[in-house]
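Collaborator request, handled under Task 6.
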Amino acid sequence: MKAAYINEFGGPEVVMFGDMPVPEPKDDEILVRNTIIGVGKPDYLVRSGNDPYLEDALPGLIIGNESGGVVEAVGPDVKEIKPGDKVAVLNATGCGSHAEYSCAKENYAIKLPNGVEPEMVPGILNLQVAYALLFDAGKGTDGESIYISGAAGGIGTTIIQMAKASGIKVVASASTDEKCEALAKLGADCVFNYKSKDAKEEVLKATNGKGADIIYDQTAGKKLIERFDYLADFGQIILYNWLDGSPEFDQLDTIIKRAPHAQAVRAFSFHVFDDKPARRLSNADKCFDMIRDGRVKPLICRDFPLEKAREAHELLDSGKAIGKIIMHP
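Structure tokens returned to the collaborator:
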């Protein structure tokens, strides 16, 4: 089979394309013939060697976190999924999906219901993460407003649509005016370019001085502490990525000092559902409904052939993507 793989960690230049053996499913795994492949931040983390959940080893590491397609074979311990089923796969190992075929544990796959095709899968997977961020991780706040920085990617554009469909005020920012225009078209109530405008000023203005009830942060790093200044009372900062590394401050000490505001920080990973398949499937059903009735529509940035995986990763790293990057084998 053809696949995109790496022999060393690094930038897009380490992404190779060539022939690899078709994997064989283990006892609790399914083999999927991929018809569509998603490209996102988890792939950056694996490719760069910064994914804490990475299990497979170099060289010859097939990258890729998400895909959709048709089941070709199943292991003897697989219970619900059958050959011929159409599935969405969010592979918790963080690798394997940038290929014509890939294996995944049954509980990392979701059988697609009637009316949902694999072509819709990258949007569905973003929707699952967005749903969990908004309705699972986001509990405990007033829930009236959110702020999401760097919102032009697959997750951000999905959160905006889902929040607006749920009556939540959305403040969003991006790195270019072009991206900001796209976010406004999706329905965000307040949009600004975080490179030219001050986030604290814009968020407080948009929320009448209250601050956002939830701030979604995918960078963390030394600037995380600044988020507290425009977080509402009882608000949460939810980390769903940490592209800039760990915060350079005593997080617990900072939270304790802000006790009069009852603020909190929560780190989120979709791995929380690894041992909660029933809850994950329940969320997925709600996401399927949103796709079918048009409340949420995936925003596709660009479609690459699999042999152009390196170019797809170059776009991913460039910061120029608006929406979801996809590939086809």
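The cover message to the collaborator said: "The chain has a mean pLDDT of 92. DSSP finds eight helices and 16 strands in the chain. Please let us know whether this matches your experimental observations."
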